[in-house]
Each structure stands twice: as structure tokens, then as C-alpha cells.
Specification:
This protein is of the alpha/beta class. It has 2 domains: 248 residues, 4-Layer Sandwich (Purple Acid Phosphatase, chain A, domain 2); 57 residues, no CATH class. It is built from 10 helices and 18 strands.
Amino acid sequence: MYDIIGDIHGHADELIALLKLLEYELVNGVYRHPSRKVIFVGDFIDRGPKIRETLQLVRAMHEAGTALAVMGNHEFNALAYHTPDPCDSSRYLRDHSPKNSKQHSATVEQVPGDELREYLNWFRQLPMWLTLDGVRVVHACWDSDQMGVIQTALVEHGGVSSEFLCQATKLGTPLYQAIEDVLKGKEARLPEGKSYCDKDGNERHAMRIKWFSSPVNETYASYALTTADGLPTDAIPASLIESVTPYPADADPVFFGHYWLRDECPSYLASNVACLDYSVAKGGSLCAYRWDSKMSLRNDKFVTVRARGL
């Protein structure tokens, strides 16, 4: 059975507290459970105070076989941030803009350069999704078609190579959009002239959508996966309705992170859909789900630890 844990973002103390609450014990430097295994949904790095310790703990569990893990968008972004652009050696595949550098600064400051290069190589080896016996895990969005695009590119480029990253960060390529959807979540453009501010105060003209459900009879505000002040109440247009294929109600349960939910008590989003990112890096909670092979999800299976120092 699996304990699926959401975005950590360098909050190692909360992770240790959560593992202990889940009855994992530290044995020979690795957290273990006699009958269960962790699945991490990605986003180990950036923002938090103990990124190095988080990486050490997660990688140790992963390599010892007491945990599985998928790549998050922050791991993908880090790979692009540290990979030179083959068309311009003075630039990188993820631009070193003030915004991007600020987002990644805690990782660069806390993890020594040689170690960080080792972790980047480890990130390359992580799958972008997992299909296990009766359960699915991805960082942001389960989309079989886009996963097919990614899988084809992985075979063509020999994994998450520099060539893969070059195509995956080039606006307009099929691989770029596939990575955007699977690791960063499907988005919808807001009506002309409409915008809102995200959790970091950045103005946004597109919103992350509830890709797992139908947008019929929804507004932009009600169909946004992450709530925010200022989202328009205009009805969802037919063009967006036609482009969305909701997650099938009879498919295996899917777990993901990424969306910075802020509810005090976690709950599933559909009978077979659950988000496990409850904003530990913004004063919320680190969240896990104790999956026990049941098709329908239960709210009493969520386990949380509040962010420290609050």
C-alpha cells in the first residue's frame, strides 16, 4: 500500500513529522515502514528553509526502495535553468530572469554546486508519472494524449537529455505544450482585458482549470482549480468546453500536487481525483493520502502536518 505525499518545497521538518505520523521509522539513515511505501508527487526544491535536507531524505528513500517519486515542475524548471541554450551559450533554456532566479534562489543558496549537479542528474531519472496497480500519480494533470507526446520524445532523445529539454522549452512545439499540461496544469485564457494576481502577486491572464471535470454551466471563477480574488464570473465559452475531456469516473484514482490548495481540511475533488498540495510553503500543511487499494476515495485517509513556526 502507498502513502502519497504532496509538494514539500524544502520543508524537511514537516516531512519528518509527517513520516513519523504515518509510522515510518529511521533505520540505517532511511525512513521505512514494514508494509507501506511512499510516493512523492514532486516539487522537493525551492522556497523552503531545508531544501538540502529534503533532497537527502527523499533521494535516500527513493534509492533504498522505500519510496517512489515523480518529477515536479520545479525539478523540470531547475534542469532547464541549469542547461545552456545550444543556440546561444550565453543563455539558458530557462531564462535567468529576476522572477525565475528569485523562485530558484533558495535552492542555489542552500545546496552546494557539486551536490546540486548530482541532484539534477537524479531529477533526469525521475518519471513524469506513475501507473501502478490501481492508482495513478502525476505532478499536475493526467492527460493520456499529452503523455504520449512526452513518451515519444523521451524515446527519441534518450530520456530527459539536453535535446529533450531544448524541445520541451521551445514555445510552440508539441512537447512544450505537453510538458506545460502534465507538469504545470492545463490553463484557459481569461476573457480579453481580464486578469488576476496569483499567490506570488504576479498578474495572470490565464487560469489553471479543473481538468478532471466538465466545464459545462461553469464560470471562469467556478472552474478555476486554484481560487483567487478577481477571477471573472463570465460563463465558460463553447470553445473551452469542447477542448476539455474530463477524467473518466471509472478510471483508477489519480493523485497530484501543484495547485496550492488552502483548505484547512483536505478533501477529494472527485470520487477518484485528489490533490495533495496544501501549501506547506505558504503556511498551510504538508499532506499525505493513505491509499489502501479502494477505488473510491475517503476524506479520512488524508493526513496532514501544519507548517512549522506559525
